[in-house]
Amino acid sequence: MQGCMHDTYNPAMVSRTIDLRSDTVTKPTETMRLAMAKADVDDDVLFYDPTARQLETEMARITGKEAALFVPSGTMGNLISVLVHCEIRGSEVILGNNSHIHIYENGGISTIGGVHPRPVKNNEDGTMDIDMIESAIRNPDFEICYPKTRLICLENSHANSGGRCLSVEYTDQVGELAKKYGLKLHIDGARIFNVSAALNVPVDRLVQAADSVSVCLSKGLGAPVGSVIVGTKSFIARARIVRKTLGGGMRQVGILCAAALVALQENVQKLVIDHKNAKTLAEGLNKIKGLSVDVASVETNIVYFEILKGSHVTALKLGKIMQEHGILLMPDSSSRVRIVIHHQVSASDVQYTLARIKEAMTGVTDENGGN
Question: Superkingdom of this entry's organism (predicted)?
Fold first, then answer.
């Protein structure tokens, strides 16, 4: 039961706000706002916006792909990618049963694209077993009954698994499997820069096996709006048309792309700090009586913690208590809470959060926490 915990929140009543609901909540920095104000712009639908071209060229370079396209959101980026790879209605895509595309994107690949999802169980680390992927590929000899498999989708990092990272070796294996059967591989790389920072592997190497990738600019990178999809020139040419069909073609979009360029310059190097703060938070939460965290699974900037049975506090109640201290959390169920660290959460904010959660769980005030 994900909720944003803002119904009764009044920021005027607290001295500080620490927003841990997601890394999508960051505010544009002053450098971003200045770049947006001064951005050189033109009509992007007519392919004339120079700042959009600059961002797309840079993202293509970083990801090692031929071309890129700015889109309003990650959901649209994934939808466009699936629709381009699965142009024929009734095509089938193999994807994780716990993936963002399958759960959180309104079933758009089906309702809009007529694409059939073939979910395969995600393991705790976000992977799908290679043999299970292979067994999910439809036998073309029985196409009288089966939809035709055309695409495999991976998610890296894997959000619902706690931001776990898929290794280059694993992704390469899936890419080889796709080629063996004449399929395409799309990576939902909303937080691929977090993976790069965590594994110390360049982004282009992480996505080398992919035919297309969607990369979010407004999550860990901290830009206010948008995502970019990358692939071959022919893929992006078709993606541009689908973007227009979906209402995603915007005019002077360089105003948004300017902020994203600043994010690439300033915030990529901050991701390792976010990961360190997430690990510190996880370790601290795991020491609080009544809470449990799989600390080893915290590889990037996402932390899930469980409220153990017998506790007097539910996830929703804890969220409301934290609101009173200016701390915003994301209850995931009655006993599970998600926290996401971003560049506008400091080490001091982490200690303050730990102190307030400990106080709520145990009734004991930590006099040293959160100054």
Answer: Eukaryota
pLDDT of residue 8: 52
Tell me: the pLDDT tens digits for 18-44? 999 999 999 999 999 999 999 999 999
pLDDT at 10: 59
Do 128 and 96 touch, CB atoms closer than 8 A? yes
Confidence at residue 253, expressed as pLDDT on a 0 to 100 scale: 98
Low-confidence ranges of the chain (pLDDT < 70): 1-14, 364, 366-371
